[in-house]
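ligand=heme C
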Amino acid sequence: MARPTRNRAPRKKTSTDTLIFRALIISSVILSNVIIAMESISGFEFQSSEIQSLQSDTFGNPAVLWVDQGSTLFTDEPNSCKSCHESNLSKAAANYPKYSNDQKKVLNLEQRINACRVSYQKKLPLEYESKELLSLTAYLVEIGRGQPLQIRLDEDSVKTFKAGEHYYFERRGQLNIACNQCHDDNVGRKLRGDTLSQGQPVGYPAYRLEWQNLGSLHRRFRSCNIGVRAEPFEYGSPEYVALEFYLAWRAKGLIIEGPGVRR
Ligand code: HEC
Ligand code: HEC
């Protein structure tokens, strides 16, 4: 039986000894009833029913304000996004982060939007976490809702993938805890009033009640870094883009459900 828990990249061939050892681990994992951690589950499932209904309500979801503004920005400006993207971009949210042949690196959706602004609209890039960039991102995520995440892992993007995977399993901060120790090993446990989810990215950008605002996935990463008293990285940093790429790959099978609502 394959072991989908960690969704790690295929490794080099392993010896029979290691395989037997792994089989033992797998059976003990099954016996100890940690099966729940084996399939991908969206963070939505770990929210209270009040928050779930807020997210599911087309008009009650506070993110609708950003989606509306995003739709206007997409359509109304001179030399608008829409003037080039008439056939809509409903697949984009599910395909990002993605390697750009143009820029010779993996870009997330925010960076792709800014690349278009700079290259094709001859405008300055929007600041990360600005109302405008969150709105355009929220709009693209909204029109991509319901699509399964489909990340392309190939020769060009594998280095970024490896960096993200490494980051995910690396202990950090004064508390010396890695992402996986919370989001794989302790899923379902309570932590400071939250129920630990698998740390899936499919609800972002999300309106967080704690923020009283819409926030990007990178803002969430920063909260998690600060939670273990680690120095957070910059929004849009190569480290966070790599982490996002790895998480998007790890989320295989989940559908885009953003913009979400979270505690
Ligand atoms: C000390 C435990 C802890 C660590 C370590 C941690 N997080 Fe989190 N994380 C949380 C808590 C608590 C939440 C909010 C509840 C939830 O969804 O798990 C959260 C939420 C998230 C979410 C949002 C999930 C959703 O659906 O809203 C993502 C994505 C995430 N974390 C990614 C990461 C990544 C990547 C790392 C490593 C850099 C990390 N986390 C490290 C505790 C942690
Ligand atoms: C003058 C034409 C033009 C304008 C204006 C433009 N784009 Fe683009 N856009 C492109 C081209 C060409 C590509 C493919 C380019 C590439 O891969 O480098 C692209 C790619 C994209 C993609 C990635 C699609 C995918 O599936 O990979 C997104 C998302 C996107 N644009 C969003 C926007 C947004 C949002 C705006 C407005 C802020 C915008 N674009 C404005 C021409 C344009």
